Each structure stands twice: as structure tokens, then as C-alpha cells.
From TrEMBL:
Domain of life: Eukaryota
UniProt name for this protein: Cytochrome P450 family 2 subfamily J member 2
A Pfam family recorded for this sequence: p450
SUPFAM superfamilies: Cytochrome P450
Swiss-Prot/TrEMBL cofactor(s): heme
GO annotation (BP), single: xenobiotic metabolic process
InterPro entries: Cyt_P450, Cyt_P450_CS, Cyt_P450_E_grp-I, Cyt_P450_sf, Cytochrome_P450_fam2
Major subcellular location class: endoplasmic reticulum
Length: 245
């Protein structure tokens, strides 16, 4: 509420630059529209949704990313070789670079698939009677799609239960996206932050691997890849060594 208040105060003098500024504009524009949903309460919930949906998910995926790199050192090494060969060690990573880094991009997609942090989608409700693949869905039915089942479907993935970046590479080593890659769901209510998440993951993951080699702490033999059940599936707390390359 304080943030909204300070936005209100400065918006006449400063250029609009963020979500709250534009939301306030929209409230202004629709103030005489009957039943408009643009009000302060809805803005608060929307900001909350963006923080909730936008930070926990990417942070958890990054924790899985580093754990997998420790668990699969040969894959880590291959990513670093590609980064060194294509970008060198001093290049500041840009999201556009993914086009020149097919193996790294495939590894990031495999991290998202294999960690499957959101097992089922947010509950949705049918707004009218309908039929899906021959099944009748009466108006009012709550629907939660099973994302996990698509990410591990043996009909669509060669080795579903194996961490295999090859799932996202063609025979010539080019990056390919897969139809069953539905980690961000699909349709009208597809994840709003899909591009932002992919961008953040790419930039942070590449920058970290460019700078550090990740290894288990000395003496640690077993790497626990099982998840802790929750709103997102997280790895168990773990330690690793980040060694400057
Ligand atoms: C690896 C990261 C992420 C994953 C795996 C992920 C996955 C998902 C999934 C599965 C849904 C449910 C869609 C449905 O119910 O059909 C969703 C919804 C949503 N996500 Fe993400 N998400 C990620 C990152 C983000 C980020 C970075 C943001 C925001 C900046 C974000 C914002 C949202 C919002 C607002 C919704 C609700 C969309 C709606 O109801 O229309 N997510 N996400």
C-alpha cells in the first residue's frame, strides 16, 4: 500500500515505468466503466501474484540446475566447453546468445523438464458445459492439468527418467523444442512469466557456469536428487563448492 501511495504521489512528475504506474492509469481510464475489475485491491493481488509466481519458481529451478551440474559433471563440462568456445570467458551473457549455444539451451530445458517443479496447474473452472477428448466436463467443474505426466510421458521422451539434454537436440546438435514440454502449461492461462523465467534462467545459469566449476564438498559421495513435496518441488538442502575457473 505504501508503494502504491508513493507511486500515486510521483506519477504526475515522473515518467511511467512500472506495473503499478500502468495499473493506476488503467484504473483512471475505467473509473466510469460499470463492474470494472481495475481497483486497488485487485492491483495488490496482482502484484502479490507476480512476486509469488515469479521468484520462488525461478529460484527453485536454479537450485535444481546447480545440483544437476554437481551430479552430472560431464554435462557441466560440456556446457562450459560450449560457453568458452562460443563466447569466451569475459563476454557478458545476453539472452540472444542462446541461439549460438544449442547444447547449453538444451541443458536448461532439460533442467526445467526433469525438475518438474509444478506437478499440477493452478485450479481452473469450466465456465460452460463442454467436451474434452470425448469426456464431458459440466459447467463449474474444477480442472487441474497434470503437467508432470506430460514431462515424463514415455511416448514423447526417449529416456523420460534420465537427465538427458539430448531430448532437446536433433541429430545435428541443433536445439529443438518438444511438443510435450508443457512445464509452463498451455492455452489462455499459460504461465505469464514463461519468457522472463527462461531469460533469467539462461543468463544466471550461463554466468555462473562461465565463472565457476561446481563440485560436491569433499567426502560427499551421495547426491540426493529426490524432491521435497510442496507448492513447488524443491531439492533437499545441499552444499556445493563453487571453484573459480
Ligand atoms: C521455471 C519457472 C516457472 C515455471 C515452471 C512456471 C510454471 C507455471 C505454471 C505451470 C502455471 C500454471 C498455468 C495453468 O494453470 O495452466 C503458471 C502460472 C503463472 N505464472 Fe509461472 N512459472 C515460472 C515462472 C514464472 C515467472 C518468472 C512469473 C512472473 C514473472 C510467473 C508468473 C505466473 C503467473 C502470473 C501465472 C498465472 C497465469 C494465469 O493465471 O493466467 N511464472 N506458471
Amino acid at each position: 500500500m505504501q508503494e502504491i501511495k508513493s507511486h500515486r504521489e510521483r506519477r504526475t512528475v515522473e515518467e511511467h515505468k512500472d506495473f503499478i504506474d500502468f495499473y493506476l492509469d488503467q484504473m483512471e481510464k475505467t473509473k466510469n466503466v460499470p463492474n470494472s475489475t481495475y481497483d486497488e485491491e485487485n492491483m495488490l493481488h496482482s502484484v502479490f501474484d507476480l512476486f509469488l509466481g515469479g521468484s520462488e519458481t525461478t529460484a527453485t529451478t536454479l537450485r535444481w540446475a546447480l545440483l544437476y551440474m554437481v551430479a552430472y559433471p560431464d554435462i557441466q563440462e560440456k556446457v562450459q566447453k560450449e560457453l568458452d568456445a562460443v563466447l569466451g570467458s569475459s563476454h557478458q551473457i545476453d539472452y540472444e546468445d542462446r541461439k549460438k549455444l544449442p547444447y547449453t539451451n538444451a541443458v536448461i530445458h532439460e533442467i526445467i523438464r526433469f525438475s518438474s517443479i509444478i506437478l499440477i496447474t493452478i485450479p481452473r473452472q469450466a465456465v460452460k458445459d463442454t467436451t474434452v477428448l470425448g469426456y464431458q466436463v459440466p459447467k463449474g467443474t474444477i480442472i487441474m492439468a497434470n503437467i508432470d505426466s506430460t514431462l515424463f510421458d514415455p511416448e514423447y521422451w526417449e529416456t523420460p527418467h534420465q537427465f538427458n539434454p539430448g531430448h532437446f537436440l536433433d541429430k545435428d546438435g541443433n536445439f529443438v523444442i518438444r511438443e510435450a514440454f508443457l512445464a509452463f502449461s498451455a492455452g489462455h492461462r499459460v504461465c505469464l512469466g514463461e519468457v522472463m523465467a527462461k531469460m533469467e534462467l539462461f543468463i544466471i545459469f550461463c554466468s555462473l557456469l562461465q565463472t565457476f566449476k561446481f563440485t560436491p564438498p569433499e567426502g560427499d559421495k551421495e547426491i540426493n536428487l529426490s524432491f521435497v513435496f510442496g507448492s513447488t518441488m524443491k531439492p533437499h538442502p545441499y552444499k556445493l563448492c563453487a571453484v573459480l575457473r
